[in-house]
Amino acid sequence: MKMKNHPLLGIHTLLMMIFIYVPIVLIIIYSFNNSRLAANWSGFTMDWYVSLFDDRHVMEALTNSLTVAVISTLVSTVLGTMAALALRKIDRRKKAAMGGLLYLPIIIPDIIMGLSLLVLFNQLNIPLGKMTIIIAHITFSMSYVYVVVTTRLSGMGRQLEEAAQDLGAGSWQTFRYVTLPQIFPGIVAGALIAFTLSLDDFMVSFFVSGPSSTTLPIYIYGQVKRGISPEINALCTILILVTVTLIFLAQFMLNRGKGQKKKSMLPF
């Protein structure tokens, strides 16, 4: 028998959606407020968005965030994909043990991750700056890429790879023409998730950043301590739009990968 959903579940869901999304909507609305006072609406304006690009500190923070996000995404995507491919070929016990280690950066709280990396960098006498932020972001982003690619690999099967090898393909040819096309949507989705996490990260970056390596989330935190201004609302709105767009792209790539029919592509 099919059980009907209780009306209270729908009400609960609606209340949760309101609780989560109304503050975000308010930030977006007041980013177009002509008044500097957040409580008073005095008209529509785009001036706060224009002034952002004339602010040297905002541009410096944006450059730092993009530099860290791009480099950490590239490295973590390569390492996470390699880890997923390598652990696929070992026995279950070793895979479970190694997989558990790769899951740790996802499970442990960000504050512990940031503090532990700070202690590590201090012990190794590594000066805090952009390089330490990049290393920290690679540490947790790699795990997310590994999870996405592993999920894609687990649903792929080995039939096409075995067929390619039966037809005389070597290891590299099998990977290039069979495995890589099948897992490519997962790799792209993992990279987009890694980029989003790096761009939005505050907690870990706060611990391992130096004086000249302020990222956008850290800059926003510093400005909010002085009071919420329309410029901060505008900056937060841009970050929200970028984040949502990247998440939708990552989901699109995952759905595209799942919806693709398995085709044998053996050009040899």
UniProtKB/TrEMBL annotation:
Chain ranges passing through the membrane? 12-32, 66-87, 99-121, 133-153, 174-196, 202-222, 234-254
Against SUPFAM superfamilies, the record matches this protein to: MetI-like
Top-rank taxon: Bacteria
The way this protein sits in the membrane is described as:
Multi-pass membrane protein
Question: Which parts of the sequence belong to the ABC transmembrane type-1 domain?
Answer: 62-250
Q: Which UniProt keywords apply?
A: Cell membrane, Membrane, Transmembrane, Transmembrane helix, Transport
Q: Where in the cell is it found?
A: Cell membrane
Q: What is its main location?
A: membrane
Q: Which InterPro entries match?
A: Bact_Polyamine_Transport, MetI-like, MetI-like_sf
Kindly give the Gene3D superfamilies that the UniProt entry links to this protein: MetI-like
Q: Record's family?
A: Belongs to the binding-protein-dependent transport system permease family. CysTW subfamily.
Q: What is this protein called?
A: ABC transporter permease
